[in-house]
Amino acid sequence: MRIGNGKYTTVSISITQGYYAFQFSLRSSSHRGLPMSSTIEKNELSQKIKALDSLTADEKSALIGLLNTRKKYGLVWEEKQEDVEELLREKLPVFTEVKERRIDAKPEEKDSGKLDLFGDDEKDTAPPPDHISDLILAKEHLNTRPERMRLRSTVLRSAIREAAKHEGLLDFIDEPSQDERFEKNKFTWSIQLTLQPQKIEVEIPKDVLIDQDMVVAGRQLIVQEKNRIRYAKTTLELTTIVNKFTHTLCGPYEKVDSAPIIKQNLILFLEEYFGIPETPDALKVIGFEGNKRFWQDFVLNKVLHEYEKIVRKKREIRQPEIETAEWNWPLERAYNEEFYKIEPAEVHSLIPFCNARDASTPERKFIAFLEEHRQYINHWYKNGDSGMEHFSIAYKNGQGKDRLFYVDFVIRFADDTIGLFDTKTLNSDPEMVAKHNALLEYISEQRERFGGKITGGVIIEQGENWVYSVAHLDPKQPFDTYGWKALVPQQYGKMVA
Question: Which of 78, 136, 139, 285 could bridge to 327 as Cys pair (CB 3.0-4.6 Å)?
């Protein structure tokens, strides 16, 4: 940027997000630097440094070296400051809006002299066919959202009961009599834990004369019992102490969400097992300094251990929920050129057609088959392999776990029949039978909705034909293709030019 000799120089800057133009100028400032004429001569300053008695010779040498270091400017080193640096000593940069240079996001006229931020790219893109958006399929997906790392109250309560059982405490099943249960549990933990709230108070010195006869241990004065007085903390003070303490009991779990859950469940635990009410007695037992080490061991080492065991069992038996959502032919899709490349196709629903670089041989051959019979096909779509945006159905794998099956091809034939086909070779996929049978069940469920115009299944190349089974496959004879049906696009009519 060149700064002229006038009062200011104007630079127009386009900020595309807001489409505003700004004017950059340099204005006079009250915060001025020292002009060059007031700079102290280096030789004079060097002599003053040498005359200082308070500095060592090395210090004087270092200061003089820094003094003689010269600034360098430009790509070619010069002994000259830039004009802008001198100008900025007395001027401040200011941005002001230039309204007449405002950029319109949607200009009314192309030749209005304003910049079209979006260019003319849209006119080079073929609009999506009208028939693409009028078909909606029901797709299935698994709700596998990860659990947040926070404690769940119901699980923590069960974990506390398990840990208490291992510690020898009795619950209402072991001892139905409430009074008996409370007394037995207090006796069991009486050595480890102070459970008498009336004894949990803070002691401070009272009327103590500090003299040399008092015993001092380190920095702590040991005050005789008769010179002490007790005072009780307020409920608010106890609550603050307990809140802060329970944050240290969360282990690997989120403190903000988990600490209140620990606090509430410890309060319920003291009431259920020892008959200690919440306010303020339970707060005293939890927040008492002499009990903290016990609580840390009990919660961190025992309760959370039981918690993890319960959660682990739930994960083993829990199946992700199968949810249904609508899926429509995509009007656009982003492809990564590292993994996809443009290949010829005339009736793919998205033009240009981008195929995976590592697409399987059966997939490539089936695409060629579809394009060869394009006069009988309205359009077809090569589905993705994963992701919420792609068409999928649920099936159970060999271990009985719910998994998703992304059908390779979604086809709309000339008579509006929908074809859902997944290309395979025999013995190429151990889950082929499960996927095929799940797809047939899906088609059966959707048949009424589409007036019977829906078909599909696992399809394989056999000679010059592509064949698929309209019946469920037998897991004991998965490779028996007897009775399989050939896909004949001609039977679905011919597209009208």
Answer: 139
Report the C-alpha gap between 262 and 446 in whole angstroms. Answer: 49
Neighbour count for residue 380 (Cβ, 10 Å): 22
Partner residues linked to 485 by β-bridges: 468
Q: How confident is the model at residue 103 (pLDDT cuts 50, 70, 90)?
A: low
Structure tokens at 203: 């002691």
In the predicted structure, residue 219 carries a pLDDT above the cut 80: no
Give every CB contact of residue 17 below 8 A, 6+ residues apart in sequence.
Answer: none
> Burial, 273: exposed, middle or buried (Cβ in 10 Å; 0-12, 13-18, 19+)?
buried
Q: For residue 401, what are the contacts with CB-CB under 8 A and spacing of at least 6? A: 319
Q: Is the dihedral of CA 228, 234, 238, 243 positive or negative?
A: negative
Tokens of 123: 């006119």
CA 311 to chain centre: 22
Three-class DSSP category at 152: coil
pLDDT tens-digit map of 380-397: 999 998 888 899 999 988
pLDDT category of residue 78 using cuts at 50, 70 and 90: low
Kindly provide the b/e burial profile for residues 1-17, where b requires at least 16 CB atoms within 10 angstroms of the residue's own CB: eebeeeebbeeeeeeee
Interval 446-489: pLDDT, tens = 988 888 999 999 999 999 899 999 999 988 887 788 889 999 99
CB 412 within 8 A of CB 165: no
> Cα dist. 180→22, 160, 168, 186 in Å?
82, 20, 15, 10
Q: Letter for the amino acid at 361?
A: T
Q: Where are the alpha helices (DSSP H) in 382-490?
A: 432-446
CA 374, CA 204: separation in Å to the nearest integer? 93
Residue 334, Ramachandran bin (φ over 0: left; ψ between -120 and 50: alpha; else beta): beta
H or E element in which residue 84 lies: helix 83-87
457 touches 432 (CB < 8 A): no
Whether this prediction's pTM lies above 0.70 is answered by no
* Dihedral sign computed on CA atoms, order 186, 190, 192, 196: positive
Return d(Cα 91, Cα 96) in angstroms, integer.
15
State the pairing for strand pair 409-413/377-382.
antiparallel
Q: Please answer whether residues 394 and 439 qualify as being in contact, where contact means their C-beta atoms are separated by less than 8 angstroms.
A: no
Contacts of 155 (CB under 8 A, 6+ apart): 307, 310, 311, 314
